[in-house]
Each structure stands twice: as C-alpha cells, then as structure tokens.
Amino acid sequence: MLTKRIIPCLDIRDGRTVKGVRFENLKDVGDPVELGAFYAGEGADELVFLDITATPEERKTLTSLVTRIAMHLNIPFTVGGGIRSIEDVNALLQAGADKISVNTAAFRNPVLLDRLAAEFGSQCVVLAIDARLEQGDWVVYLNGGRQSTGASAWDWAREGVDRGAGEILLTSMTHDGTRAGFALDITEKFSTGLPVPVIASGGAGTLDHFREVFHQGRADAALAAGLFHSREMMIGDLKRYLLEQGIPVRL
C-alpha cells in the first residue's frame, strides 16, 4: 500500500493565514512563513498554500509570499489562487512552488487544464474542487465558495482528469471547519472512481477522522488547517496513531 500523506493548508488573506467555518467568518491564525516552517519541521508530507481572495479580487497570487515560504521548506509545496495562464504558473514555479492548484479559472475555461498539463506535466496540476451537498447531490462552487455552479462535482472531476489534472483536492464545504469528520461518501467515490490521487479536505477534528478517511474514504492524502494551526493536534502524534492503526505513513 502506498504511503498516505498528511497535508497542512495555509488559507491566505491579505498576507496572513486565516481559518473559518464553511468558508465564512474567517479569523487570523498566524504568519504563513512561520507556520510553513513549523509544519516542515513537524513532519508534514506536503504543504498547500491557497490565496483565497486572489480570484474574487481578480488579482494574481502573492508570489513574494510564496517565495518567502518556500525558502523554509524541504517538502513539496502546492500553490493556488488566481491562476489563469501558463505565465501565472511559470511565475509561481520560479517562486518556489512544486505544484499548482487551479479551481475557478479551470471550471470557467476547462481548456486551461489541457494547456497546463501539456506545458508542465499532469504531476504539476492539481484540480481543486469545492463542493457542497445540496439535496443529495454534490455541487461545485467557485470564487472561494461564493458562487454555486449547479454542476455535479463528480462530472467535473472526471472531465478535469480527462483533460490532464494529475491530482484532485476535494474540499467538502458542508464539512469545512466543523470538525465533525470528512465527507467519506464522496471521498470514497472519487478515490475509487478516478485514476489519480485524491486529497480529502474539510471536517478533520479527531485522530479517528483521519483513520476513517483513509480506510472508508480510501483517500490518498488528508488535508487539515485549523486543527493543526491551533496545535490541538500535532502531525507527529497523528502519524504515530495512524501507524498503530495499520495505515502506512512517513515518519
């Protein structure tokens, strides 16, 4: 069995790390440079940086901040927010990103995925999907969770992979920030039905939630933010627990 990954996420607004519940009521939780360095030392397998206001504000990702964070990392670094072109990706890779995450721009212009995969390789392209459960269906949301598309998250994920996305970052807006557990049903559907790795995001609250998302959800990686930012759960403790549960992780 492949090693499962634990990934902290830095949601960035105005150069600071923030966290909310279901994408709302965001609160400042720290300096992203300090947090990135801390997680790299703590044993995180990767780090995700999402500039959550870049798309709504119609601007590019904060490349200078990406550079400052990357200087302190020795783990893979995924960056997203405001990416609309090959030039945007080139700038972020030069700033220190290893992979890029696209969301709104890819949905509005799916050919972007084809172009990015052709230029940089699928292994560099992460398709982020923010989905909310509505009347039994998982619906895609854009602009940092502000705009419903009415589109099926499953259908969009399949198209995105067909166009070249090499990984899916699946965030359940229904579970985000609740600490009530991951969305196991849709995570399992994505993980078993798609030929690329799936990162589960939204709802982590206990050690057991991570065990569940790897066992029942079949996820390749689990992402969390507030639980790690508050130091209520340490990555080393989580990984030791997962090993005890028979889940392979890198210590």
Indicate how many domains the architecture comprises: 1
Tell me the structural class: alpha/beta
Biggest beta sheet attributes: 8 strands, parallel, barrel
Share of residues in helices: 25-40%
The strand count comes to 12
| Helical segment count | 10
> What is the CATH architecture assignment?
Alpha-Beta Barrel
Uncertain residue segments: none
Remind me, CATH topology? TIM Barrel
Q: Can you tell me the CATH superfamily?
A: Aldolase class I
Q: What's the alpha carbon Rg, rounded to whole Å?
A: 16 Å
The overall pLDDT, averaged over residues, is 93
Q: Give the CA-CA distance, first to last residue.
A: 16 Å
What structural keywords apply?
TIM Barrel; 28% strand
Your description of this structure?
- Helix content is 35%, strand content 28%.
- The protein has 251 residues and is of the alpha/beta class.
- The protein has one domain (5-244): TIM Barrel (Alpha-Beta Barrel), CATH 3.20.20.70.
- It has an 8-stranded parallel β-barrel with strand order 1-4-5-6-7-10-11-12, surrounded by 6 helices.
- Strand 8 (137-142) and strand 9 (147-152) form a beta hairpin.
- It starts with a strand and ends in a 7-residue tail after the last helix.
- The model has no long low-confidence stretch (mean pLDDT 93).
